Give the backbone structure.
Amino acid sequence: MRTIRIGTRGSKLALWQAAYVRQSLEKSNPDIRFEQVIIKTEGDIDQKSSLTRIGGQGVFTKEIEKALVNNEVDMAVHSLKDLPSKMPEGLVLGAVPERGPVEDILITQNGLSLDQLPESTRIATGSIRRKSQLLNMRPDLLITDLRGNIDTRIRKLKEEGIDGIIMARAAVIRLNLKSIKYAVFSTEEMIPAVGQGAIGIQIRHDDTQVLDIVKTINQDQAYYAVLAERSLLSTLDSGCQFPVGAYAQVFNNTLRINGFVASEDGRNRLYDTVECQRDDAEHAGNLLAKKLLEKGAKSLLDEFNRT
């Protein structure tokens, strides 16, 4: 029996995602054995520094990608929002299973919504995208940085005088965290990160056997949606973490993608949308990025990179 090695981070959420992929692949490929290989990434080792300071993009994926390139694993399972839009040479996105919830949530002790929070409430997030959109909606908020795994973040909410934290709804649902109280942002209120809620299966571009295997759990709607989102990010890419978000949905054969670029303080926010045929997903993301650039996104990105 052939063995396929699945590279993954060792966090609870990463292990849940890898197990989900493994179990799905086992159902559709009963004659193959799948095993998980845990790989530590820079983001796992350094859980204190700001993601912006240590590089943002790629800090949770580089070491796993190296193992894939070096043939130490046969596929890699990532949270797609962590995977840079430009991959190392020789690697491709092989499949995207059914996408989970894409929304961001506000976790507080009492499950308050953003509108219910008092003035100058202290909110913690490690995401520049979330910080920018929070300040756009509520300029009075005091935003502080937040790092660590999910358990650490929730502990900080209870012990460090933070009034609320922002997390991805998918993480809470997948880890079955029933004891926390939260309010859900709509995707219009807070546009998700590129690939949020989606799991990406990365493979070597010339490994046609593994491609055929992972395609058995690919969902076309999720795959084309994230292609569009990642195309937008690739066109805008400034090489670091910056305030940008996008969300694409596929209805029948039509794809619609919304996106934004903003200043870190949320005062300047550019938004637009594109609709196209599903098979033109990458073109749609590219076109939306160009529309945002025409509105002045480049000057916002340049300003952010100078700070």
The first strand starts at residue 2 and ends at 8. The CA atoms of residues 182 and 292 lie 32 Å apart.
